[in-house]
Write a structure and sequence with these properties.
CATH superfamily of the largest domain: NAD(P)-binding Rossmann-like Domain
Shape: globular
CATH architecture of the largest domain: 3-Layer(aba) Sandwich
Structural class: alpha/beta
Helix content: 25-40%
CATH topology of the largest domain: Rossmann fold
Bound molecules: NADP nicotinamide-adenine-dinucleotide phosphate
Largest sheet: 7 strands, mixed
Strand content: 25-35%
Number of strands: 15
Radius of gyration: 20 Å
Number of domains: 2
Length: 330
């Protein structure tokens, strides 16, 4: 059967542009014993993809090789199988790639339990929820009553972090790039405050929302929010460095804050990446499922249509055009 896939054929200079990709038509191969054929239905688009396109071999994961199908996570349905553990009709989740179909032997693929919508899996029980839980609970170790600021709070990771923090009894402040996103954080997700980081009075608004200072900062962006929150950190505060999206499309990284307050305030600043913590995923899925069932976690998916929509659509992550977890429906 013929299907469409998208290969990475050029590395980005700064932004992700259509000439980095080649759309190809491929033929599904005959299955060998132990293999099964997946029709991808939901493909995740993530800011990390920019890093995977770059030649940097000094990162937590090797780059996508030129000429290879672009890497992604996703969910699909098994449409043919020579593996009894992965029967026809079952849904699987794992590294799929920018492709309509793929053949797998099961390595790195997990069956999706029946009854959970695929959007919920990609928004809550996959990378965003796992990253949020790992960063907040295992790195940040929050205590009820503490104040947390989350940047890119209306995004897929940030919205999970804020809601877990609320469920754990924290005072939660989010920053986001539009007033609509800020309103959604407060009205729908129950954040205590949300501030548009493009406001000229960001520092003053943050200080007003955190009269007792900030104990935890979940860093998704870098840039202006980082500087404003750093000023407000309390003694023994913790900064969980998850992402720095404001630097992903720049040639020169922005300057960080001065380090003297790290000593004076005895701050802990820790970076983390999800691939280091795959062993904790079963426990984290259980914890996130519990929040979900208790109605403590809401999610919104921002779906694009058709594989080729990924080529331009991925840039919504860098313009702030995505409202919710960005994904492609195929
Ligand atoms: N460490 C890990 O293992 C791990 C795993 C997953 C994700 N991450 C990181 O987590 C962060 C969020 O990822 P996500 O998947 O949840 O994406 P997302 O938040 O759903 O989408 C990205 C958001 O970033 C904001 N943004 C873009 N450019 C910005 C800029 N220059 N300054 C401030 N905000 C900007 C935009 O929201 P606004 O409209 O609010 O500007 C955009 O909607 C990223 O930095 C990503 O790399 C890390």
């Amino acid at each position: 059967m013929e299907y469409t896939a998208i290969k990475l054929v050029k590395r980005p200079e700064i932004a992700i542009t259509p000439d980095l990709f080649e759309v190809v038509r491929l033929e599904t191969p005959p299955l060998e014993d132990g293999q099964f054929l997946i029709k991808q239905t939901h493909m995740s688009l993530d800011p990390a993809m920019k890093g995977w396109m770059m030649p940097d071999r000094d990162s937590y994961i090797p780059p996508v090789e030129l000429g290879d199908v672009m890497r992604s996570g996703g969910i699909g349905e098994i449409v043919d199988s020579k593996n009894s553990g992965f029967p026809i009709g079952a849904r699987v989740q794992g590294l799929t790639g920018w492709t309509e179909y793929l053949v797998s032997n099961g390595q790195g693929m997990n069956l999706v339990p029946e009854g959970i919508p695929s959007e919920a899996v990609l928004c809550v029980l996959a990378l965003p929820g796992m990253t949020a839980y790992q960063g907040l609970m295992n790195v940040g170790k929050p205590k009820a009553g503490e104040t947390i600021v989350v940047s890119a709070a209306a995004g897929s990771v940030g919205s999970m972090v804020g809601q877990i923090a609320k469920a754990e009894g924290l005072n939660v402040i989010g920053t986001a790039g539009t007033d609509e996103k800020c309103q959604w954080l407060v009205d729908d997700l129950g954040f205590d405050a949300a501030i548009n980081y493009k406001s000229e009075s960001l520092q003053a608004e943050l200080a007003a929302a955190a009269p007792n200072g900030v104990d935890l900062y979940f860093e998704n962006t870098g840039g202006v929010v980082q500087h404003a929150v750093f000023e407000l950190m309390n003694a023994h505060g913790r900064i969980m460095v998850c992402g720095m999206i404001s630097d992903y499309n720049t040639l020169t990284p922005s300057a960080g804050p001065n380090w003297v307050p790290i000593i004076k305030k005895r701050l802990t600043i820790q970076g983390f990446t999800m691939p280091d913590h795959y062993d904790k995923i079963p426990g984290m899925i259980q914890a996130m499922s519990k929040y979900l069932m208790e109605g403590k976690i809401k999610y919104r998916a921002h779906s694009l249509d058709g594989l080729e929509s990924a080529i331009d659509g991925i840039n919504l992550l860098f313009t702030g055009g995505n409202t919710g977890k960005l994904m492609v429906k195929l």
